[in-house]
Amino acid sequence: MKKKNLSHTLNYPAVFEPAKEGGFNVSFPAFPGCVTFGKTFEEARRKAGEILALWLEELAVHHESAPIATRYPMVDEITVNAPSSLTFVA
User: Over pLDDT 70: what percentage of the chain?
Assistant: First the structure.
């Protein structure tokens, strides 16, 4: 009997970081090296989906396994009082 190739809907955390030159850099903690960039958040999100799909396709072509996302990063903003003598760089 021939094995059927079933597709799966997967969710992976993506990290969107504002880039110095504008736009957003995107990375995936579960896939080191899988990165992309978009000039707007919407473009970055779309390109992130495209690059992750290509990454998974490449794993499948090479008969490699994909990790299952079991840990999700949490991002929050912490407020602190900085010393008045501290200098800042942009």
Answer: 93
Total residues found in the chain within this entry: 90
Q: Where are the domains of the chain?
A: 15-61
- Alpha helix positions (H), the chain: 41-61
Q: Which residues pair with 37 in a beta bridge?
A: 25
Dig out the tokens for 23 from the structure: 């736009």
Cβ distance 37 to 47 under 8 Å?
A: yes
pLDDT in tens, 15-46: 999 999 999 999 999 999 999 999 999 999 99
- Helix-strand-coil percent breakdown of the chain, rounded to 5? 25, 15, 65
Angle at 43 between CA 89 and CA 45, to 5 degrees: 85
DSSP 8-state code for residue 63: T
